[in-house]
């Protein structure tokens, strides 16, 4: 008897599919509506020249420094701001996806002001970070997923101009506290691909970061933060990359300056920009590259309306030029 044996062909396991995605994450500088700007019935005209850029990013954050509470408070500028609530609508329509609320003007209108801001923000259904409605809200991680890339946000301010919420208030603002910041980052970092810290810090109208900013950045680098977007100085400050002994890289825009703010203390406060990075995820490997700043200029047009323009297109009308911006930001960032 002849037995015939057939070898069963072993099925080859399919090659794992390695997905690759690249997104662009960006932030604009301070939205701080001094009285001259706060009286506008619509802000879309002011943003229109920058919209092609603002809408090109996969995720865009804005520092909403003046409280959007004009529906319940009289419109006011410096020193305690109250802006029209529809600034949120017009920022959203221009391309903004998230508002940062941790800044020194967060408590300008007290507890009721901040509560009203939250009501309006929720009415427009836009995410926020840095100030919170209660302990449960603060405990909720600010994580967004864009094309399969998870980004976690934390945010802090150095002060609130000597104004504070009542101790009994459920509302809170995140202040710079190294121990708390490290704990927050430690908690959110394992849940995301990229950890972003937004920090309100530094000296106003100074185009270089100070020792305190570098110290805070060093601590956040040690904690594992990948990107820091800075604000408060109202003028641009350098971009820098920090790498610690463990190889952790932290990309830092020390200050993105003003985006839409009529600060008269320094003419350089009319120049700001959009800071951005490319984030690529391939399998489990995540890389952050191409730090870029689209420089912007706030100008008063002949019709009396202030509008934001790409600086490269309006250098002859602007208080500073592209070379000035490049000198401040440094050689390691693509300034356009």
Concise summary:
This protein has 336 residues and is an alpha/beta fold. Helices cover 21% and strands 31% of the residues.
Short key terms for the protein model shown above:
disordered N terminus; six-stranded mixed β-sheet; 336 residues; nine-stranded mixed β-sheet; globular; alpha/beta
- Average per-residue pLDDT, rounded, comes to 95
Shape: globular
Please state the structural category. alpha/beta
Strand % is 25-35%
| Tally of separate helices | 9
Quick one: how many beta strands?
17
Which residues sit in consecutive blocks of at least 5 with pLDDT less than 50? Answer: 1-6
Topology as H/E string? EHHHEHEHEEHEEEHEHEEEEEEEHE
How many whole angstroms does the radius of gyration measure?
Answer: 22 Å
DSSP helix fraction: 10-25%
Q: Span between N and C termini?
A: 83 Å
**Major β-sheet, in short?**
9 strands, mixed
Question: How is this structure best described in words?
Answer:
The chain has 336 residues and is of the alpha/beta class. The protein is 21% helix and 31% strand. It has helices at 35-38, 44-47, 51-54, 87-94, 110-123, 135-139, 178-188, 211-223, 322-329; strands at 20-32, 59-64, 98-100, 128-129, 131-132, 142-146, 149-157, 172-173, 194-200, 227-231, 239-243, 249-253, 258-261, 271-282, 285-300, 306-310, 334-335. The strands form three sheets. Strands 1, 2, 3, 4, 13, 14, 15, 16 and 17 form a nine-stranded mixed β-sheet that branches. The longest helix is centred in the middle third of the chain and has 14 residues, at 110-123. Mean pLDDT is 95; it is low at 1-6.
């Amino acid at each position: 008897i002849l037995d015939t044996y057939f070898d069963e062909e072993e099925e080859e396991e399919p090659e794992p599919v390695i997905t690759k995605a690249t997104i662009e994450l960006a932030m604009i500088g301070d939205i701080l509506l001094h009285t001259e700007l706060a009286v506008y019935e619509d802000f879309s005209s002011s943003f229109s020249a920058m919209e092609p850029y603002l809408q090109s990013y996969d995720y865009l954050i804005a520092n909403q420094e003046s409280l959007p509470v004009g529906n319940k408070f009289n419109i006011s500028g410096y020193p305690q701001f109250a802006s029209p609530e529809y600034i949120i609508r017009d920022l959203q329509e221009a391309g903004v996806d998230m508002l940062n609320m941790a800044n020194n003007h967060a408590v300008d209108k007290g507890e009721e002001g901040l509560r009203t801001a939250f009501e309006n923000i929720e009415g427009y259904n836009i995410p926020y970070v840095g100030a919170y409605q209660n302990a449960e809200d603060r405990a909720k991680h600010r994580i967004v997923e864009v094309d399969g890339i998870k980004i976690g946000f934390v945010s802090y301010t150095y002060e609130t101009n000597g104004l504070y919420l009542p101790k009994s208030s459920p509302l809170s603002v995140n202040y710079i506290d190294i121990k708390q910041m490290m704990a927050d980052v430690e908690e959110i970092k394992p849940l995301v691909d990229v950890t972003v810290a937004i920090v309100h810090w530094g000296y106003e109208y100074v185009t270089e970061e100070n020792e305190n900013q570098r110290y805070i950045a060093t601590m956040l680098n040690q904690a594992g933060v990948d990107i820091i977007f800075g604000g408060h100085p109202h003028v641009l400050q350098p971009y820098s990359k920090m790498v610690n002994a463990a190889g952790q890289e932290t990309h830092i825009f020390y200050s993105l300056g003003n985006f839409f703010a009529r600060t008269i203390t320094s003419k350089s406060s009319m120049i700001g920009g959009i800071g951005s990075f490319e984030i690529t995820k391939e399998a489990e490997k995540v890389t952050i590259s191409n730090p870029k700043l689209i420089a912007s200029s706030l100008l008063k047009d002949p019709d009396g309306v202030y509008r934001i323009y790409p600086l490269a297109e309006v250098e002859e009308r602007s208080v500073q030029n592209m070379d000035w911006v490049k000198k401040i930001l440094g050689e390691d960032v693509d300034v356009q």
